[in-house]
Amino acid sequence: MNTFSWLFVAALAASVVLKLWLAQRQIRHVRVNRAQVPEAFADRIPLTDHQKAADYTLTNTHVGRIDLVYDSLLLLAWTLGGGLQLFDDLWQQAGWGTIPTGVAMIISVFAIMALLELPFSLYHTFVIEERFGFNRTSVATFVGDMAKQVLLMLILGVPLAWAALWLMQEAGSLWWLYLWLLWSGFSLLMMWAYPAFIAPLFNKFNPLDDDDLQQRIQALLDRCGFKSQGIFVMDGSRRSGHGNAYFTGMGQNKRIVFFDTLLKTLAPDEIEAVLAHELGHFKRKHIQKRIITMMLMSLAGLALLGWLTQQAWFYQGLGVEQASNHLALLLFLMVTPVFTLFLQPVSSWFSRKHEFEADDYAAEQASAGDLVQALVKMYQENASTLTPDPLYSAFYDSHPPAPVRVAHLSTRMAH
């Protein structure tokens, strides 16, 4: 172990302690407020539903703590424990050459990581979600989804990994810049292709067949100057009782998608308000800002990786004896989250800021009152806690806490 090894261990330990402390704050705060519905929701959400949401949050947070410790131990096993070096030694014995060996190593490590996380995924779906009445996923559907994900990883991941390793080997000292261009192009392509080619592998998307609702939505789209390839209903109820709505795609391939569970819960006015909120993200250019931020972050990360690949201490400090491009990629992807934890609350703050801006837009184009009604129903349907710990929420949550968001919209109702 070298100095970087100890720095890595210290950073990992600090992140685990911080996350466990935040989780304990969340558990304590939700438990203390379990007995009473917050005043702003007292006439809208029954105590039994409030307590169900609290219990659902507590259960997920408890399991999340175990998962956190488990993942941290696995990271130590892969790095300082010699796991990556062991697997690399095994693949080197195949004698396939530098790039094929690297691709095989990357794909196999990601596959093993997914298998190691499988128990938590199974427990969440078939125990927690089942216990709280959300699970609609059959074992056959779960296995089928896994098979499709593996197939997609092979179809998309193998060529991408091959191209990345080829650039690292053949493109000279600026390989990281060319790889950034490749990654950016691939990401934009996936955003465009996802709604038409990937999402339908997992769910059915049918055009909205409610003429009155479709006319109401189309009028809203016309007012907002938004053009899409259609309004679709997704069979979310096939897998879960949770409801949602979202935009997907980009350019001329944009789609508006409603979960079928959501349409059964909300009234037409409320659906219009939810859609107006989503349109607010489009009109306020939140999606473009996120794409630009993602690209700049990936550029900085790849530039850093370009430097780290030349540093022997980087490999040796993380349990790797022989430097290679594929091990550099794997180490960087595994270890970077430990050192960038401070970005989490910053990202969460910007995301919540965007949610407030989208709510303001919805209040202008539809009705703040209808959006509040819709949000209350969605909190209730999804068992979202109304009383998160403020510090925990500030660190993790991409959306404002329910009382804060409703209070903000209430001020818009007064205008």
Structure description:
With 415 residues, this protein is mostly helical. The protein is 72% helix and 4% strand. The chain contains 16 helices and four strands. A four-stranded mixed β-sheet has the order 1-2-4-3. A hairpin with a 6-residue loop joins β3 and β4 (255-259). The longest helix has 34 residues, at 98-131. The radius of gyration is 23 Å and the shape is globular.
Residue windows where pLDDT falls under 50 for at least 5 positions? none
Largest sheet: 4 strands, mixed
Sheet-strand content, in percent, reads under 5%
Work out the number of β strands.
4
Share of helical residues: over 70%
Rg is 23 Å
Q: What is the residue-mean pLDDT, rounded to a whole number?
A: 92
Q: What order do the strands of the largest sheet run in, or round the barrel if closed?
A: 1-2-4-3
State the order of secondary-structure elements, H for helix, E for strand. Answer: HHHHHHEHEEEHHHHHHHHH
What gross morphology would you assign? globular
Q: What gap, in angstroms, lies between the N and C termini? A: 63 Å
Task: Determine the oligomeric state from the structure.
Answer: single chain
Q: State the secondary-structure class.
A: mainly alpha
Query: How many H/I helical runs?
Result: 16
